[in-house]
Amino acid sequence: MGNALQHKGLHGVGLSEILADADTPKGGLYHHFPGGKTELAVAAIEQQVADLCALLDKLLPGADPVAALELWIARAQQGLAASGFQRGCPLATVALESSAQDVAIRQALADGFAAIRARLALAFEASGRIANAAGLAALIVAAYEGALLQARVAGSVAPMELVGAALFPLLRTQLQGPPDDQATD
Amino acid sequence: MGNALQHKGLHGVGLSEILADADTPKGGLYHHFPGGKTELAVAAIEQQVADLCALLDKLLPGADPVAALELWIARAQQGLAASGFQRGCPLATVALESSAQDVAIRQALADGFAAIRARLALAFEASGRIANAAGLAALIVAAYEGALLQARVAGSVAPMELVGAALFPLLRTQLQGPPDDQATD
DNA sequence: TTGCCAACAGACCGACCGGTCTGTACAGTA
DNA sequence: TACTGTACAGACCGGTCGGTCTGTTGGCAA
Which residues does the UniProt record annotate as the domain HTH tetR-type (chains A, B) (predicted)? Predict the structure, then answer.
């Protein structure tokens, strides 16, 4: 499910395709997911968020957060290229397809993004003096999503590298503090 | 068409819905767009890119590019809120739904993004000394897309404001030059 | 006036969509 | 051993999808 969502989005995958992938007949599905495709999607979103949070928890603590983010982006680049520029962020596709009526899905996505931002913000705060940790976290998530998107349609990791090359130096200057206001803890 | 694409994506809209919106019967469509839905989508994408480029051309020249971008983002925020958090970037949704097999669509999208990046990069270069104009352009497009995405699912412009508040000061320091390496022309 | 062809209109098509419904297999209980 | 309720299986449903096909119209050439 997660995989298919990542590739084609919620409307793009058929229930039958999902079930075929999972080698599961259709009948039993509605016992476990009475909400049908929507509930399935919510579960997949939550799973993906949990995975991503786990990855961030592995990369972020201790190290220089910018270095950790560079590693994160590098991984995403590899994943994208390895999938032949099919796999993107599993949250983003569903996010853009969803309408305001899809309350459950939007809630799951909003919670997911908030959780990711919170984790990044926490890492910035822990790494030292930082004024606008929440803003930086939102910027990074945005840059990540946007970079992935551009790279996907371009069929090349070049846009991601461009974004990284522009963003990380800026982040370093911000995090390491302007020379006249240095502080570390 | 553009509107519908923006709201629900390529797979999310039915051809019948598009035609009903346009008050056009189905028959004549295939005279003008023998390629069917795909060709229609490509045309819509190109139209949107042209519109966006026109907007940028209106905002960017002359002024401080960062101020122009702030205006641009503010407009996007207004549009998003005014649509009840339905309308996003018309390119992004289709971009994420598309697979590598959709050659024509991906090409149109890649060209579109490249054109937008080029316009931004040009503005940076024109505005003064700048090392990595292409990188900054890619970063801004990425941040824009990602911010829009987060704001949409959150049902609030707050994420966009966060991103803007983090990005624009960074851009200013970059564009106005580090204090020990100032240069203007 | 007549013949012709591009432009258009919408009825129609098979395929497939998400979802439901009946039937079955099989634990746990007495 | 007989009973029962849950978990599963897949045939089946109406609706809608993207796309095609047969008219019909209306301007233009002769």
Answer: 5-43
> Within 12-41 of chain A, which residues have Cβ less than 7 Å from strand D?
24-28, 31-32
A173 domain residue, yes or no: yes
Dist CA A140 CA A120 (whole Å): 8
Whether the CB of A128 is below 8 Å from some CB of chain B: the reply is no
Structural domain includes residue A12: no
CA distance A43 to A54: 16
Residue B101 gets which letter from DSSP? T
> pLDDT for A115-142, tens place per residue?
999 999 999 988 876 778 999 999 999 9
Rounded CA separation A153/B96 (Å): 8
What's the pLDDT score for residue A44?
Answer: 93
Test mutation, B17, B91, B96, B163, chain A, max A CBs within 10 A: B96
Express each pLDDT in A65-118 by its tens digit: 999 999 999 999 999 999 999 988 989 999 999 988 899 999 999 999 999 999
Nearest to B146 by CA among B132, B166, B158, B163: B163
pLDDT digits (tens, 9 = 90+) for B97-120: 998 889 999 999 999 999 999 999
Cα–Cα distance measured from residue B88 to residue B142, given in angstroms and rounded to the nearest whole number: 14
Report how many domains make up chain A.
1
In a domain, B88, yes or no: yes
Question: Do B150 and A113 lie within an 8 Å CB cutoff?
Answer: yes
Boundaries of domain holding A101: 44-182
B21 pLDDT more than 60: yes
CATH of residue A113: 1.10.357.10
pLDDT one-digit tens code per residue, B34-45: 999 999 999 999
Put simply, whether A93 touches B (Cβ < 8 Å) is yes
| Residue bearing tokens 């996505």 | A109
- For chain A, say whether B84 makes contact (Cβ under 8 Å): yes
How far does the CA of residue A56 sit from the closest CA of chain B (Å)? 19
- Which amino acid is present at B79? G
Contacts of B142 in chain A (CB under 8 A): 142-147, 149-150, 159, 163
pLDDT band, very low/low/confident/very high, at B129 (cuts 50, 70, 90) = low
